[in-house]
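During the second half of the funding period, the structural biology subgroup turned its attention to how the target accommodates small molecules. The most pressing case was uridine-5'-diphosphate-xylopyranose, which had performed well in the primary screen but for which no bound structure existed. We therefore specified the complex as follows and requested a full 3D prediction, including the ligand pose.
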Amino acid sequence: MPRVNQICCIGAGYVGGPTCAVIALKCPHIRVTIVDLNQARIDAWNSPDFSLPIYEPGLEDVVRKARGRNLFFSTDVDKGIRDADLIFVSVNTPTKKSGVGAGFAADLNYVELATRRIAATATSSKIVVEKSTVPCRTAESMRTILDANSKPNARFDILSNPEFLAEGTAIDDLFAPDRVLIGSLQTQEGKEACAALSEVYQNWVPKERILTVGLWSSELSKLAANAMLAQRISSINALSAICEATGANIAEVAHSIGQDSRIGPKFLRASVGFGGSCFQKDILNLVYLSESLNLKEVAEYWKQVVTMNEYQKRRFSKRVVDTLFNTITGKRIAVLGFAFKADTGDTRESAAITLIRDFQQERALVNIYDPQVESNQIWADLNEASPDVPLAAIQRQVFICSSALEACKNAEAVIIATEWAEFKTIDWEAVYAGMNKPAFVFDGRLLVDADRLRSIGFKVTVIGRGERL
Ligand code: UDX
Ligand code: ADP
């Protein structure tokens, strides 16, 4: 069985960075090098004051312990590849924006470029591991590229080892994963490569949590897990619409159904809509796969999960307009939270982007506050969401604030778009004093104590709650 002494991770993003930093921490005998083409990103990973390029609780501590010991960050991709026994491919796989499958299929350009680089550079045999979420059978394409371009003496075994970490809890998820999934070809070499990777994880993960399966099952399991999780949120959000119309309370409904041990209590929090880099992308991937396999009904089934999510966002912004006497033109709206969930600075597919675009179209003035997201990221996202509107025009309508209190000043309404814990403990009396009256709060995350806010004087609207004011 090949032994892993050196690991290279291609891609220093949200997946590759934390995952390989934790591998380095837990395996001091393995040298781990994380490489990326993006110089600024690598510089940030190497920064003397540990201002890392991504915000993730616990990550800095891991990097402080391992960096310079057996964890290295570099832009020298070729050296990383040459030195490694095992290479993780953790590059981005966004949804295609043009061409065949646009809007649905994953853009595998980055995976392909990284794979070609491995083939062109490697002078000895390697285990190549797909870590990025990829469509089913991508490993086969990688094998074809590697086989067709490899140097003599360089043999490649390909494994699928999808990452199940969630942002915000990545370090805990990596320290104690529910399971580690490794897919391989069921050949002797495939099984040996699988055993070599399994040995790496066994440095801290109990053996019974390491599942070894066929390659295609592993690739599909990642898509399936995300699709099922997203489906739960769309289901509870669909029920939240019924609650609002009937006077039922979605928190009570979720609690009641979650007590059934077959359903379970997790992932039943109604919200303004799910975001993140994975859910929508993976479902659209599944839809594309189903369509290409001629499974029209299956494709339609999964597509509905995304349709419901879009509906939830639209429904929420409409409720804001309806409640504010059918117009928000010229009114100041404070949006608290821009990240797609709490404890991350990531904004990919964040519901806040859609809400703010809707408010812009209604010609409201929008104040935004998020504790982690950088201003240039907010401008880039809003610019992309409204391609027909010049950035300068957006910046006349939207303002980025440095505290929740500042964002709420002179506003007519406060929207809670991300469930940051600090929004629970802001000085709501001071917020109320600074707002125009009547002062409205719209809780899109079931976060605040609505009754307490009402006792201060706010008119509170909560997602999945019938009574309006
Ligand atoms: C997800 C998967 O959980 C993870 O296993 C996979 O590796 C990557 O995709 P992530 O996108 O980081 O992780 O975050 P997650 O916690 O799953 O939340 C996704 C979205 O769903 C967020 O916008 C979150 O706010 C929303 N959500 C989650 C709800 O609206 N309600 C819930 O009950 C749970
Ligand atoms: P994820 O959430 O999947 O980790 P990110 O976009 O955060 O996605 O990170 C992917 C990283 O992969 C980016 O920093 C990007 O620069 C890097 N990358 C993409 N293609 C290559 C490549 N061929 N070689 C090295 N790094 C790459």
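Two results from this model are relevant to the next phase. The two ends are 66 Å apart (CA to CA). The longest strand covers residues 6-10.
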